[in-house]
Amino acid sequence: MKENKLMKEISVTELKGLRIGNAQNREAKTGVTVLLFDNGAKVGVDISGGGPASRETPLALPLTADNPVNGIVLSGGSAFGLAASDGVMQYLEERGIGYETGYAKVPLVCQSCIYDLGIGRADIRPDKAMGYEACINAEKNQPVCGSVGAGTGATVGKLYGMGRAMKSGLGIYAAEVGKLKMAAIVVVNAVGDIFHPETGEKVAGLCSEDGTGFADSCSELYKISRQKDLFEQDKQPDIDINSNTTIGAVITNGRFSKAEMSKIASMARSAYSRCINPVGTMADGDTIYAACFGEEEADLNMAGTLAAQVMARAILKAVELA
After folding, report:
1. Alpha-carbon span 137 to 143, nearest angstrom
2. pTM above 0.90, yes or no
3. In the predicted structure, residue 109 carries a pLDDT above the cut 80
């Protein structure tokens, strides 16, 4: 991907105050990725898909209380995987981290899940123990990309089911412009195909029937819609459009309000449309969190533009390293 001379790639570990940990079950092909904020973070959110599996996401809405969020959880398991946050909350509570209510400190944790029950084992999902394990691993803060954590069961190009899909995973990319640092963490689990955002080259997605190349998901979707008009219900093609979601987060050391972070999240969503097609369907739960915990002053437009660029690169890493 062509490098912007003003944008310099950095390690995500240069965002001090953020720790990332993964845990997974490779037999079941599912897992958890946790983002822990040492001193809390202001979090916004953008939801563009029609079927999100989420927990405590309203904490990131602009009109809710402006309390620091302690962690963001990305996981597999569909809505079953929401149990992983129980382990994250236990980990934080044991360390005295959370919102002080006067009777107890309540950790504030947002979570979103992908649907990965169609690969591996559907009866084993991320749970409390796996969420806790991911937090323990976050203490090392040695994040990696590929088929790990929440990306363990991620796939793309799933219009005709897993038989013609391709493996995807977890992608991480970070960069800085001046003193502003921005990182993106994403789990790419899309029904659509994945494209290089600058060249337009398809890099992953729906395989052709003979397995020798790619088919075009958009063309196939149009074809399926036409066939539904022409044929009776029992002769309609067998499609699988209910098992998809791309979830992620952008993290910055900038200083922004919660409402501004929601705007940055919505600007980061343009990376989805640059790289994934089709995207944001009613069968997706596409969600992006945006978190800040720094003091660097930066223009909101520049920060949102940077967020989209690092997210696009993280999407590429998710499929290239899977």
Report:
1. 9
2. yes
3. yes
